[in-house]
Write a structure and sequence with these properties.
Two copies of one chain form a homodimer.
Chain A lengths: L2 E9 L2 E10 L4 E9 L9 E7 L7 H6 L3 H7 L2 E5 L37 H16 L2 E10 L1 H12 L7 E4 L9 H11 L11 H6 L7 E6 L5 H5 L1 H11 L3 E6 L6 H19 L3
Parallel strand pairs in A: 4-5, 4-6, 6-7, 7-8, 8-9
Antiparallel strand pairs in A: 1-2, 2-3, 3-5
Chain lengths: 280, 280
């Protein structure tokens, strides 16, 4: 498993680093970023928060804009940010910003031409943590979080794999993709027009029938332009109520869909995960 | 004086906003960003930190990447980030990233074709604060800071106008532009090849002969690729020693020229300014 270091920046006493590696799951070269807190520099293993970004993003948006390193350095937590889709000239794409490159939706595509590379669910669940845990002083104590499409991905991965994650959080997640335009477009392309298989990738449907639970926190801005048409936090909240799922849903007056919102509350998310990762 | 609001994001209980206005100093439309902390929302005037960015930047880099709003919200301080040069199709430019648009160097150009628009020194010193203080609940208690080319600008503006600023700070400033490639290229273009007039825009030369002082703090990463060829903090330090100038110069092992460095120490800079602005 070859891996190439692309960049390295000292940050709050730890290191932000970008790497490229060939992904056997995605059949292409992939970039990811990792923040290693000062506690990891001695070689001691630290727990990990996996961050999944939203539409059009790469590994860089969160690392540059969220202001998370300050708190991760205090708490002794690594943060790993994968890209949002397979990349490269050979990878199928679409003119829209909401399908294809930058819009992998964290699913395993079953439909051509997407199924050759778009296997982001398996990549985030298995290949990336295996690589990270083999190369860095990062333990298998994992939490997962994300924004918008990445909030959807984080919730789906945690809901389907409660044994793999200690906690999950999301900012402004696409909570019920089978019922919104972004989700319908992506899921019909990647999984086919028969919507029966879509339920495996819908946080609200999964939460409704969840038995084994991962502590979950969601924050949603009330001035978010995508709130009612695309995100549907009410549906997620109703699902949690129905199944008794431990979901903490916080609504914030005046906040929008941007990283200014994420930066304002990322500290609370990291402290939430640290409690469940045993770091505090 | 017309001004147009371009964007508005709630951030740490305050507001990040971008505006466009026609600048009579620069003879073109200009964009700037302002962060108004929660304390300003009642209409009470808050003190202001003006932030000057580096080469290739706009008003957005600092606001998105530095993580300053969290601390400004706590301290009750507005932050104003102008662009780094005049902008627009009619504005003279150059193929290099280090001259022309995005590289105004905070000087008043005297040479054609630059002198028609490149008057960033006057814009930052006079027009922008007058506009800000007339439109927002922002007082005339001002501090100034910046990064790289913007660190040069902040130091020069404060050293030449000690009555206008309570404190000045810089990350990785171009400290002695008359003696480095970036500075020689820009100053010879904007001010002419006779270097006699360049001294008015050289922080080290100004600090050597300073009488009235503004408390100054500089932070410099020791792994900065531009350290010895372009930035020359030793020259600035020697000037401060020579004139007894109150300069606090901090060197940081392993940090580079990026916003990861700025984010790591911006809290210390804002608290430094707050002390001198009477906010703590």
């Amino acid at each position: 498993m070859s891996i190439e270091n692309l960049s390295c920046n000292k940050s709050f006493g730890g290191w932000h680093k970008q790497y490229s590696h060939y992904s056997n799951t995605l059949n292409c070269a992939m970039r990811f970023a990792i923040y290693l807190p000062p506690q990891a520099l001695s070689g001691a293993k630290v727990p990990a928060l996996y961050w999944l970004s939203g539409l059009t993003c790469s590994d860089e948006n969160f690392m540059q804009k969220a202001g998370a390193q300050r708190i991760a350095a205090e708490l002794g937590m690594a943060i790993i940010a994968p890209d949002t889709s397979p990349r490269g000239d050979e990878v199928a794409d679409n003119d829209g910003y909401d399908l294809g490159k930058g819009a992998g939706f964290y699913v395993n595509a079953t439909q051509a031409p997407w199924n050759r590379h778009y296997q982001m669910y398996d990549y985030v669940l298995n290949e990336l943590p295996a690589l990270v845990e083999s190369m860095f002083p990062v333990s298998d104590q994992r939490s997962i979080a994300g924004h918008s499409m990445g909030g959807h991905g984080a919730l789906v991965l945690a809901l389907r794999n409660p044994q793999r994650y200690r906690s999950v959080s999301a900012f402004s997640p696409i909570s019920n993709p089978v019922n919104c335009p972004w989700g319908k477009k992506a899921l019909s392309a990647y999984l086919g027009i028969d919507s029966a298989g879509w339920a495996d990738y819908d946080a609200s449907l999964l939460m409704r029938q969840a038995s084994q639970c991962v502590p979950a926190r969601v924050d949603q801005g009330e001035a978010d332009d995508f709130l009612s048409a695309q995100l549907k936090p009410d549906t997620l909240e109703a699902a949690a109520t129905f199944s008794g799922y431990p979901l903490e849903l916080n609504r914030h007056e005046g906040y929008d869909h941007s990283y200014y919102f994420i930066a304002s509350f990322i500290e609370q998310h990291l402290r939430f995960h640290a409690r469940h990762l045993g770091q505090y």
